């Protein structure tokens, strides 16, 4: 099969498309023939060695959708040809609130979805929502679970609240917007890009603020008190957003481009603000997230690339040029399941 | 009556003991003849003008216990002579989760407990736990409610968890220790003072660590993963304590001597840590806190002073020399309820 692999940690340019053997599904596993995959920042960070314990070669990719190609022994309830997508969280463990230290994400160390086939535990395989295309289904797993956990499990969003999503554009933030609207919240988004703000409005954003303009914080404040912010910028954004929260408000951080944040203590305790870390999602989060995808909800897809265009796709994400998910599509017509053995 | 009042914001030295009129209870209010009051850092901060909207003169004091001296019209369920203490939170409002912006604390602007009589809304008056002396009862309201809210309402402490209380010695931290032990938690405390650590052990602390010694963080780590930290230092302590929490752990901050804290973002979101602001307590918190005071629980009292010794008492708190609450005792034999009018 054709797969994207990484043999050195020199950035996305070191990704190569090559022919490798398909892994047979072991007991309890499912082999999925992928129709589409999607990119996450994690994939980019891995190419730069920004994760601990990277073992080369890596076959990255956490998101994918396709059809069941083969079942390992002991797998019930699925048949060859079923349209599926995968929860990329592997080995969450027994604590519903916190993943096990032994948990991993599909796409390192386990071979991921930037390939024509992927082999995953049966418990991670879910039926594709019928109304979604393979590309749309491939777009939702990691970002959707991350957004779900941030908004609901950690952020405890309630209907009627106002959510702030700073830096709209990336995959997770696009899910934050969609899910928060679905939950009956008002949504305020910021970006430095007016096109992204227009796109966010078309997806339901109630208030859009260009943060490169003078006085953007006043514009957010004018939109009304913020109950919950969901952020992946960290740094100065965290400090500023804390100042925009209503008393008792909370900010959920699921990432941080900036390594540190300096917070004022007095407003934090006096206004009973909460800063809550969140990352990925539990099996419960994934299950609940999938249930949101009823027939009138579709993910924001930015662009669709061929597998050979992986570097172009990665560069688009690296430049933060996208709105929504960047997807890889695999040719459906070719039977790529020839073993190299 | 004799009362401690503040006519200028020049620090605790500007507090004067003087004779002023007793306020008659209005409809729905209760006049309490105080037998004891207790100090809080808030009182000290007020003398230095470190609160907004201070109107002089101030009669400070948030904590007190005594006997009902007179009832305003419409007050049921209380009789003159009943032994009571007071919830110092005034006007919490309708939201059980967050106090109203109009809420205030007894002792500014409403005349407080550093006086022989205090007048409060009947809803704030609770029967004194029978086994507690007046001095002990006076010690618990503000600090107890603050500790209760931090540990349980905000910190969601569960039996069997390990709690870290940095800087044991102050009133609230002594309640954190007592309440966490009562809730079935293990408790780790730190101090730079070995006498305070010994006192904490006598009150049930499982592990005590002197943070002025080399490698104190390793000693805390050796005590096992921290589920919940309750802190009022802010600053560097917050950053360090975040590094001691288990994945999924939380730190509740109810104060901050240091105005800012610089946090590392990656461990915060990757380990799903929470930093939660908390302050004072709701009526529900106060009610639940009082229910903890069954017959084998007594507050840590540091020293008891006469009203005339207010400056000495304040200085002891200012120097952080105390362990537990600093109490003011009023002479019981004198009928001080003569009006100046």
Q: Would you write up a description of this structure?
A:
The structure is a homodimer of 341-residue chains. Chain A has ten helices and 18 strands. Chain A is an alpha/beta fold. The first copy, chain A, has two domains: 2-140 and 293-329, Quinone Oxidoreductase, Chain A, domain 1 (Alpha-Beta Complex), CATH 3.90.180; 145-277, 3-Layer(aba) Sandwich (Rossmann fold). In chain A, the strands form four sheets. In chain A, strands 3, 4, 5, 8, 9, 17 and 18 form a seven-stranded mixed β-sheet that branches. A six-stranded parallel β-sheet of chain A has the order 12-11-10-13-14-16, sandwiched between helices. Chain A is globular. The mean pLDDT of chain A is 94. The A-B interface holds A 95, 97-99, 101, 154, 234-235, 238, 247-248, 253-256, 258-266, 268-279 and B 95, 97-99, 101, 154, 234-235, 238, 247-248, 253-256, 258-266, 268-279.
């Amino acid at each position: 099969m054709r797969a994207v692999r990484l043999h050195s940690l020199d950035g996305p340019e070191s990704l190569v498309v090559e022919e490798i053997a398909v892994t047979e599904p072991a007991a309890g596993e499912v082999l999925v023939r992928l129709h589409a995959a999607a990119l996450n920042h994690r994939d980019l960070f891995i190419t730069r060695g920004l994760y601990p314990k990277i073992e080369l070669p890596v076959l990255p990719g956490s998101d994918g959708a396709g059809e069941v190609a083969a079942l390992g022994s002991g797998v019930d309830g699925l048949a060859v040809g079923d349209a599926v997508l995968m929860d990329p969280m592997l080995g969450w463990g027994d604590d519903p609130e916190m993943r096990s230290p032994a948990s991993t994400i599909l796409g390192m160390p386990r071979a991921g979805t930037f390939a024509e086939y992927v082999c995953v535990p049966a418990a991670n395989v879910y039926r594709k929502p019928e109304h979604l295309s393979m590309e749309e289904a491939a777009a939702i797993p990691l970002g959707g679970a991350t957004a779900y956990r941030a908004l609901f499990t950690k952020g405890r969003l309630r209907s009627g609240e106002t959510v702030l999503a700073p830096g709209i554009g990336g995959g997770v933030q696009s899910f934050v917007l969609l899910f928060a609207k679905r939950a009956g919240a008002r949504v305020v988004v910021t970006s430095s890009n007016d096109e992204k703000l227009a796109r966010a409005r078309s997806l339901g954003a109630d208030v859009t603020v260009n943060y490169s303009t003078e006085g953007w914080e006043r514009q957010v404040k004018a939109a009304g008190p913020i109950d919950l912010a969901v952020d992946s910028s960290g740094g100065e954004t965290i400090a500023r957003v804390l100042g925009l929260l209503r008393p008792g408000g909370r900010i959920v951080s699921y990432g941080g481009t900036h390594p540190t944040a300096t917070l004022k203590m007095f407003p934090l305790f006096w206004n009973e603000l909460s800063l809550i870390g969140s990352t990925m999602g539990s099996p419960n989060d994934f299950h609940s997230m999938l249930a949101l995808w009823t027939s009138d909800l579709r993910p924001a897809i930015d662009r669709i690339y061929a597998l050979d265009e992986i570097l172009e796709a990665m560069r688009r994400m690296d430049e933060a040029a996208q709105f929504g998910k960047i997807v890889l599509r695999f040719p459906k017509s070719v039977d790529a399941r020839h073993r190299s053995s």
